């Protein structure tokens, strides 16, 4: 098989250590393989990077194992090492020969012949935006869980607030839940807290607030409201940071926002994930496949499997 690189390195990445193999020679003479392990502490990664460069290897391939490849990439990329990030499922070793040194050697051999298709690694700016927008999505998911737990406690206490208000955490709903958490039990006083326009009549709202809440449930409501406010503050803070970093992309955000079904936050998520550099994708079909919205092929013996 044709050799594309005279000297390459393959790396099997783990949480606490790396298995590194460097191949030299072999195009016109005997192939020489050097394999060693190093820890994933920053100083040790830098030392390993210097050793790789001293052996003449500037091209390195490694598995995209969880988040463990990121610190390796950060250290070595800053040293001028050209890194190809491989999907782990694309570089599987032969069953029965799977050890860490064997894996790193196998990756090096594949990379030497150009058989590893590199995963897309965005520019630093978009790596930061990805981290921020993904963290925001996690916070929003956590907030939804808190809302659901609050609704469960209300239902458990026979408070039918969700039956008379479209949003239990809207202005009126939040005021009532806060009052309940503070110990208010009078349904008339609770109903008076609804000062916004709602479809349900006051009499029906009052009936929904005649409850059987017990002391432990009030305590849980207090705790959930604290969690709700804490998460809401974190989301507001991360939104502010994302908005500041997205300022220069505002014209593109406005164009995406004009598309039905896409709001400002979704537009920010799209930019963070796909970046603004469409030249990173060969064509629209490649981009659609990368985004996971294109069907794949799974055919054998003339039969397509779904």
How would you characterize this protein structure?
By secondary structure, this protein is of the alpha/beta class. It has 2 domains: 8-112, Ribonuclease H-like superfamily/Ribonuclease H (Nucleotidyltransferase, domain 5), CATH 3.30.420; 124-247, Orthogonal Bundle (Helix Hairpins), CATH 1.10.287. It has helices spanning 42-54, 69-77, 100-112, 124-156, 161-164, 171-181, 187-191, 202-208, 215-245, 250-257, 264-274, 284-290; strands spanning 8-13, 17-25, 31-39, 59-63, 82-86, 299-300, 303-304. The strands form 2 sheets. It has a 5-stranded mixed β-sheet with strand order 3-2-1-4-5. Strands 6-7 form a two-stranded antiparallel ribbon. Helix 1 (42-54) packs across helix 2, helix 4 (124-156) packs antiparallel against helix 9 (215-245) and helix 4 crosses helix 11 (264-274). The model has no long low-confidence stretch (mean pLDDT 90).
Biggest sheet: strands, sense, closure? 5 strands, mixed
The N- to C-terminal Cα distance equals: 34 Å
Mass-distribution shape: elongated
What is the CATH class name of the largest domain? Answer: Mainly Alpha
What is the CATH architecture assignment of the largest domain? Answer: Orthogonal Bundle
What structural category do the secondary elements indicate? alpha/beta
Q: What portion of the residues fall into strands of 2 or more residues? A: 5-15%
